[in-house]
């Protein structure tokens, strides 16, 4: 489970940044006092336009950023007090995390499995299962620097999932991927749900949200505009499509802020 309570993240702005965004304030709140709960065996989608605070929130969940205020509990652990234990129970996938180009997929995933303290038998079983699911075996011996972006994303997911984390965070997991590769990743997300894991993901692809998520929150300028089940969201939609309803909610928030 992920429990977020009155979470805020504030970034200091230098003079150049203040000029760029036309602000006299010395800081900006990327995340502004949000509270969310993501439950095991359900898929939670965090939606929002670029710069809304999605990635900042996910990075705080993964302990990569420290909150300015508020708290996050992952699998019952406080991310600030028990960061090391949280990292052992979480898998975090982001497109900005680099891979080691000189290693091959087998070497890299094995390395991260051992970093997580996995015994050899469990590591080999998990690696075999992930490589089969993601169809990595055909290029498992090639150097990562020689792989396509889709292949690299598959390796990133195998690295994320190798230690069988209780909580999984996906930040734009299918961005820029071909349809076949994206489908493998969607299948893996479904498997995480079936295995009773807590799953939270961000995406700009509304068809994925419609297909996968049980619960969702819409975030805009660091604030939550909607938080509830997918069924509740559909029941109160004004527009016929998820995309148009998302745009309507965000535009309404912009109008009210003016």
Overview of the structural elements:
- The protein has 258 residues and is of the alpha/beta class.
- 40% of the residues lie in helices and 25% in strands.
- The chain contains ten helices and ten strands.
- The protein has helices spanning 15-20, 54-61, 83-89, 105-115, 120-133, 149-161, 179-194, 206-212, 230-235, 242-257, and strands at residues 2-12, 27-38, 43-47, 69-74, 77-78, 90-94, 167-171, 198-202, 215-220, 223-229.
- The strands form two sheets. The chain has a six-stranded mixed sheet with strand order 6-7-8-3-9-10, sandwiched between helices.
- It starts with a strand and ends with a helix.
- The model has no long low-confidence stretch (mean pLDDT 89).
Topology (elements, then pairings):
Blueprint (H helix, E strand, L loop, with lengths): L1 E11 L2 H6 L6 E12 L4 E5 L6 H8 L7 E6 L2 E2 L4 H7 E5 L10 H11 L4 H14 L15 H13 L5 E5 L7 H16 L3 E5 L3 H7 L2 E6 L2 E7 H6 L6 H16 L1
Parallel strand pairs: 3-8, 3-9, 6-7, 7-8
Antiparallel strand pairs: 1-2, 1-4, 4-5, 9-10
| Total number of strands | 10
> Which percent band covers the strand fraction?
15-25%
Q: Secondary-structure element order, as H and E?
A: EHEEHEEHEHHHEHEHEEHH
Given the structure, what is the number of helices? 10
Structural class: alpha/beta
Q: Describe the sheet with the most strands.
A: 6 strands, mixed
Low-pLDDT stretches are none
What's the Cα radius of gyration? 19 Å
Task: Please report the distance between the alpha carbons of the first and last residues.
Answer: 36 Å
Widest sheet: strand ordering: 6-7-8-3-9-10
Helical content band: 40-55%
What form results from the Cα inertia axes? globular
Q: Could you tell me the mean pLDDT? A: 89
């Amino acid at each position: 489970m992920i429990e977020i309570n009155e979470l805020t993240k504030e970034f200091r702005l230098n003079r150049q940044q203040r000029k760029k965004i036309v602000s006299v304030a010395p800081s900006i709140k990327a995340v502004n006092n949000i509270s969310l709960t993501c439950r095991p065996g359900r898929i939670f989608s965090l939606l929002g336009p670029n710069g809304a605070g999605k990635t900042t929130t996910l990075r705080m969940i993964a302990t990569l950023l420290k909150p300015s205020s508020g708290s996050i509990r992952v699998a019952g652990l406080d991310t600030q007090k028990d960061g090391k234990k949280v990292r052992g129970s979480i898998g975090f996938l982001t497109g900005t995390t680099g891979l080691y180009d000189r290693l091959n997929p087998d070497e890299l995933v094995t390395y991260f499995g051992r970093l997580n303290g996995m015994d050899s038998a469990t590591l080999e079983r998990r690696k075999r299962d992930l490589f089969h699911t993601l169809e990595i075996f055909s290029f498992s011996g090639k150097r990562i620097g020689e792989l396509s972006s889709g292949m690299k994303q598959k390796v990133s997911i195998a690295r994320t999932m190798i230690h069988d984390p209780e909580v999984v965070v996906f930040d734009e997991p299918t961005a820029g991927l071909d349809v076949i590769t994206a489908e493998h990743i969607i299948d893996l997300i479904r498997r995480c749900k079936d295995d009773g894991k807590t799953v939270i993901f961000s995406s700009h692809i509304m068809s994925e949200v419609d297909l996968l998520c049980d619960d969702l929150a819409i975030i805009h300028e660091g604030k939550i505009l909607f938080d509830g089940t997918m069924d509740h969201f559909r029941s109160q939609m004004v527009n016929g499509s998820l995309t148009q309803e998302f745009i309507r909610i965000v535009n309404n928030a912009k109008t009210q802020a003016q």
